Amino acid sequence: MEVNRRQFLGYLGKGAAALAVASAGLGSLSGQAEAKTADHLFGFEKTKKTKKTVGFFKPIEHTTKDDLVLPEGFKYDVVAAFGDKINEKGDTFGFNNDFTLYFPIDGSSERGLLWVNHEYTNPMFVEGPKQGGKYTAKQIEQLLYNQGGSIIEVYRDSDGVWKMDTSSKHARRITGLTPFQLTGPAAGSKAVNGATKAQGTFANCSGGKTLWNTVLSCEENYEYTAKDAGLDATHYGWVVEVAPFDESFAVRKHTSLGRFNHENTAMGLTKDGRVAVYMGDDKKDAGVYKFISKGKYDEAAGLKNSALLEEGTLYAANLKKGVWVELTIEAVQKALASESFKVPYNVGYSKEELVAMFQTQADVLVHTHEAAMILGATPTDRPEDVEISPFDNTIFIAHTNNDKHGNIHGHITRFFEQDGDLGAMQFNFEIFAAGGRQSGFSAPDNLTFDSNGNLWTVTDISGSSMNKGVFVPFANNGMYVIPTSGDHQGEAFQFASAPVDAELTGPWFTPDEKTLFLAVQHPGEQSDSLNELTSKWPHRPGDTIPRPAVVAITGFKF
What we know:
The protein is mostly beta strands and about 550 residues long. The chain has nine helices and 32 strands. The strands form eight sheets. The chain has a six-stranded mixed β-sheet, with no helix packed on it. A hairpin with a 5-residue loop joins strand 26 (about 445-450) and strand 27. Helix 1 (about 5-15) crosses helix 2. Residues about 1-55 have low confidence and may be disordered.
């Protein structure tokens, strides 16, 4: 599919639905150019191998500075930071912001709702240390309240500064205390101990946007909070759905999408109009997944399309064969019954325990990783963000790293679905870009695209490794721009550097691409105490601790 810049921005303004319809070949949206009309903004021009220059910014150097460092001509506004009041009710912005998603109000690129994930807390800055090895009831409340998500209203004022509107009627929190519905085959099943409802959402890492203008937020490393709060772990590790503009829409967890350490979702349409959702399981030696709905997407149905995520088929990728493996209870039981079956190395159960575990399809959904590995899915190197290219329907997957197998710096994998159909059962793949000294980045994480087809990635070098050993050349975590075609395909140009100990997460453009929202997560995380802080970012007057915050980056010139 060929899409020019004006069409791309038009699709963004209309939401993900238009992009998906275009990519599925369901509309007359083919263009005359290959997005090359945006060269003045997103085109790359290299002079010497040792001195790269870029059409719309001069790449920065790696740095250890305790600030969000941007190229010359760009600036950032802190829109919301931990503890800030977000509405007249007095709700406050949660901790460790991650995924961001901008929803225009009346099509505006200067006023909208911003969904923000809150992944986890830090006892030094939030709930305090455990008492006798346990949290008090008050601490558990703080632990749960400061995770989940925030819906805030943001706007750009007459001076070009992005701010939060705390008088918004839409601003609210979705937390670890919010009641949720369970949907799909596992709801009410023995596999979730009969539950049809669950308390709250937490460990919210990344996410995605649906075709019907809701947010999908992903529960990743849920195990710790569930244990500390005394909650049923089978109620977490799901993809949750929230409608930012409609508080009457019951927040829900879609069990059809499987339960594992979810990083994000990427939604598109198959050629026959069904919904496809791609997902990664962010742990070492884990799989890449795809869900395809039974029913077809109907734009006119609006929020009712949410039901498409309640019934369908879940698949896992076998990279050696280039096929999507259907995850069914029948297939799992057949594999377990074989005399030649051997428990995969990355499944921590005996054969007898697995036989007892898998009795119904609900069990497959609750124990998705185990089912996938039993059926031959490929263990991969921490598959984090997965994104569908709006230009050619290829699938980009950030494989962050895996020191178990010597993949220290990670890579970005690109899937090519057969015939470009997201509903295909066969695919091929390539290593699109590899982290390391030769590329200038390490540990790719969240991904997004701009209108010239460039891939933006942020990095996730752990705090314990940053600026040490083989990670010294990369300095602080950063954000990079990588062209997906042309002479500079696969080359990384650094656009931003994070404050000390922080990682940058959740990049999301406004429809006009004049603003990029970005989360700065866990600055100062390696601090030994409140008296020995490694960072005080964002260095606001009156702040005595580092505060995770969401920023709006401007300076893009058209």
